[in-house]
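Pasting as-is:
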Amino acid sequence: MNDWNIQSRAHACQSCEKHFSDKETFHTLLLDERAGLRRMDICPTCWDSKYKNESGHEKGFISYWHSVYEIAPPPPPEAIQKESAETLLRKLMEVNDPRYSATCYILAVMLERKRILKVKEQLKRDGRRIFIYEHPKSGDFFTITDPDLQLDQLEQVQTDVADLLENGIPQPEIPAASNYQEPIVTEGESSEAFPLISECGCEATEARVEAGEIEAPGETEHVLEPNPV
């Protein structure tokens, strides 16, 4: 199971597939599955007919709550600015790098204090505490695992958060491409038209011996060999 994930609000009932209307109340179920926690949004009709009168464990969910569906306004034009705590949290959760688990937790706590995120549920799984946060405006919910930070770790994590807010997530380095290109042999043309560099070096050495520019092997103590490729 991932230490964190984001699950967006559905735009239609995930039981009968009827689309939600603006300002309509719907129910969110939290299912504990082998692959992790899964969200399921259902309309009031399906809730009343299939889930209301049954216990959560019999129907496979461990928690539920109701929310109001709101059609999101169009996003404003993007401006060049530093990362906000919310955008940084979303990007880090997309990266899904365990190095940022503590950072995600601190960012979620910051957003909770600013009333941008709300805690909908607290769970324990495999001995670890898990928080389910909801973003009221978008309807997204965030699964955040408590990294169990110690006091001597907190200062470093806060420094990391400040650095990421200021400079963004470091981009991985891309290795430089090699300039070497394989020779292109056209159809019907022998590869012998492109002799090996070592062969060319030998031919050039023999020509210089014949011209008397250098001595033949065996006549000197050290003979220069062609450089291997």
